[in-house]
Amino acid sequence: MNMEEREQLREWVVNSDNIVFFGGAGVSTESNIPDFRSVDGLYNQEYDYPPETILSHSFYKKNTKEFYRFYKKKMIFKEAKPNPAHLALAKLEQEGKLKAVVTQNIDGLHQMAGSKEVLELHGSVHRNFCTRCGRFYDADYILEAKEIPLCECGGIIKPDVVLYEEGLDYGIMQKAISYIAAADVLIIGGTSLTVYPAAGLIDYYRGKKLVLINKGITPMDRRADLVIAAPIGEVLGMFLE
Description:
By secondary structure, the protein is an alpha/beta fold. It is built from eleven helices and nine strands. It has two domains: 3-33 and 81-122 and 167-240, Rossmann fold; 36-76 and 123-161, SIR2/SIRT2 'Small Domain' (2-Layer Sandwich). It has helices at 3-14, 25-29, 42-46, 51-54, 57-62, 64-74, 84-94, 109-113, 139-144, 170-182, 232-236, and strands spanning 19-23, 98-103, 118-120, 123-130, 136-137, 157-161, 185-189, 210-213, 226-228. It has a six-stranded parallel β-sheet, sandwiched between helices. A three-stranded antiparallel β-sheet has the order 5-4-6. The chain starts with a helix and ends in a 5-residue tail after the last helix.
């Protein structure tokens, strides 16, 4: 991030009270939560199926035991802590500048950092429900369960996480769209903007201050008003100073 990019972002943020942040896996990787899409070979040695197959609704239904073997090991990170990006966003919200965080992540780190208005497009590992009676269970219960987590009523517990083949929550999507459509500044970070329908949210932004923060290039770079190729924690961390 050069000085010019830094000053442009600072100016837009300082002068706005209607910022929306939309983030993906890259926001969490700096808290040591791996992005399962960047397969590192570990999965191939340990599992008979790729992550996208295991994390599908049909696999969960047919191979629940194997689903949970993967899910407990690769999707829940109890030791993860918010990084400067999470903390900066929470601070901007407290200052009345940031209206909402829209996230594709399921780790709950935005809430842990203190953010209040967090729209979780893909759900959360911290919410789990019995498929029979609807009783709530936390992530610890899932981790401590043997093989398949069962409710006291005998029903199978399912994470409140959107699996492949499942639709996004309509109410959360509508809320995200309304925040983005009304935003003055839209900051998008840590996402390749290739997973739909979430990536389509950018189409609802009508403003002229679209900021893309990503280590790699995205298909939307040409549409942005400011592109910063740097780690998101480093970029947003300047608002903690």
